[in-house]
Amino acid sequence: MKKELIELRINGRAHELAIEPNRLLLDLLRQDLGLTGSKRACDDSSCGSCTVQVDGVPMLSCTMLAASCEGQEITTVEGLADHGGLAALQKAYGDFGGAQCGFCTPGFMMTVRWLLANNSDPSEQEIREALSSNLCRCTGYSQMYQAIRAVIEAEQKAAPTEMVGAK
Questions:
Q1: Could you read off the pLDDT tens digit of each residue along the chain, which spans 167 residues?
Q2: 138 in a domain, yes or no?
Q3: Does residue 54 sit in the same domain as residue 104?
Q4: Do 92 and 148 belong to one domain?
Q5: Residues of the domain holding 97
Q6: Which of 17, 95, 113, 143 is 20 to 30 A off residue 66, Cα-Cα?
Q7: Which residue pairs, CB below 8 angstroms and at least 24 apart, start in 16-22?
Q8: Are 93 and 147 found together in one domain?
């Protein structure tokens, strides 16, 4: 099959890649670029383990063609790291036991990152709705909700408060 040259931005870095037109984004990330955080679990868009963000929106990479992402910003769980250290969400998942086997965790984190970017104080129901496209077989979800709530509370405490009359 003839390869085509595409340009992708992945985790803030530009990549020029020669790929077959039917190359799945998940395979490109895992096999071609060594970004193995996104997982292959179902191959039919039913579990969310392969979730990445494409231009800030959670997308399932196991059924998405890599060529369809040309010119867009792709963020994987590896792109969450904060200057070589864990992002607050990654740390909270560890602290609260939100990642038992860890297989589904990257997909959940990418979805939660999107949720918090669009809603800084989601209700429990909004968190549940956002995570409804991701499946976990280990945790029972309560540890994940605790981790997410801890991140929200920490961000609220760190947010500057406005003073009346301040300019």
A1: 899 999 999 999 999 999 999 999 999 999 999 999 999 988 788 899 999 999 999 999 999 999 999 999 999 999 998 787 888 999 998 898 887 787 888 999 999 999 999 999 999 999 999 989 888 887 778 888 999 999 999 988 887 766 565 55
A2: yes
A3: no
A4: yes
A5: 88-158
A6: 113
A7: 17/66, 19/66, 19/67, 21/65, 21/67, 22/65
A8: yes
Predicted TM-score (pTM) of the model is 0.87
Q: How far apart are the first and last CA of the chain?
A: 61
18 in a structural domain: no
